[in-house]
Amino acid sequence: MKLSKRITGLTGGGSDGWDLFIKARGMIDAGQAVTELTIGEHDISTDQSILDAMHRSASNGHTGYAMVPGTDALRDAVAARLTARTGVPTSRDNVLITPGGQSALFASHHAVCDEGDVALYCDPYYATYPGTLRGVGAVPRSIACLPENAFQPSYDDIAAKADGAKSLLVNTPNNPTGVVYSRDTVEGIARACQEYDLWCISDEVYDTQIWDGTHISPRTIDGMEARTLVIGSMSKSHAMTGSRVGWIAGPTEAIEHLINLATHTTYGVPGYIQDAATFALAQGLALEEKVGAPFRRRRALGQAILAKQNVVGLVPSSGAMYMMLDIRATGLSGDDFADKLLEAHHIAVMPGESFGASAAGHVRVAMTVEDSAFEVTLQTLVDFAKEIRP
């Protein structure tokens, strides 16, 4: 018996980009100490008050089927959050609650792409993007965003690939680069989407982690509200990665059809988790800032270390929980540098090549260990780069 071409072709026949991560976990399983700076997982747990709210809800019986679109309370809370943050009027009819941001990405592309449609995405990219597009039957087409342009896509970059495409996936603040798209960049995205009749799927799960600049959603640009689906999540903003609760915000008609899709796939999100998310959003900025504070501190610590040398370069790190480091001066690829660093010092970072060709010669460092350990680890990385430099 044969499996479907769609499921066997999710990675495009190549690596899924997680080889280094898997190798590091294998070392850990074998009893070796490894400092992991690989995945975007907080080093703090979900706040106890959120867990208490989840427990109360479950104990009070909200453990059965919840409404597939999401509870009215959570949809209203997400809508109010988006209205306040972006100025775009949003109601519960514009919101579908999903089992995390990844589910929202998958569903959004199902909503706008038919089998064989071309779906654009920016390179560097979060590792699941190409597979997500293939998974809905779309044909992925990458847009190279180069390091000399701070990895930001321009109108010209998009226009060069836009003929015949149906959608454009963008991500700001950006994973893996930590770049926050400028107003010029977002306006260029909007111009390209309108001129080439593209749906814009905007992954904004890091919108609370802004260290420099301002987060600008493409949905706020004139003419974009009707052609933009925004992806949000509680994972990064509230350290609720394992709770799996996110959302899609967009035009009412699109949300109505996405609710139909959810009815036939996920069948919603557990009610007690939604109640915990509603509670978490009600705590306002104070809790979000508490969750983001360690990354703000570690970014400053990292900048201070990197400013004292000229071998490892830092891509402008304006948001999210990552630093993208330029290690091309060592003469190694990101893959080789990461592999040698792991072998020599038991430090695991993600090769830039895991996120696309445009990030070759870079490594991504997740700022997800305690401050002093992060300083020591980053200094070790820098010293290692100096040692192996030609």
Automatic annotation (TrEMBL):
Record keywords: Aminotransferase, Pyridoxal phosphate, Pyruvate, Transferase
Annotated coiled-coil segments of the chain: none
An example Gene Ontology biological process: amino acid metabolic process
Domain Aminotransferase class I/classII large: 34-376
Catalyzed chemical reaction(s): L-aspartate + 2-oxoglutarate = oxaloacetate + L-glutamate
Annotated Gene3D superfamilies: Type I PLP-dependent aspartate aminotransferase-like (Major domain)
EC number(s) per entry: 2.6.1.-
Required cofactor names: pyridoxal 5'-phosphate
Single annotated GO MF: pyridoxal phosphate binding
Keyword Kinase assigned: no
Top-level division of the source organism's lineage: Bacteria
Family per similarity comment: Belongs to the class-I pyridoxal-phosphate-dependent aminotransferase family.
Name of this protein: Aminotransferase
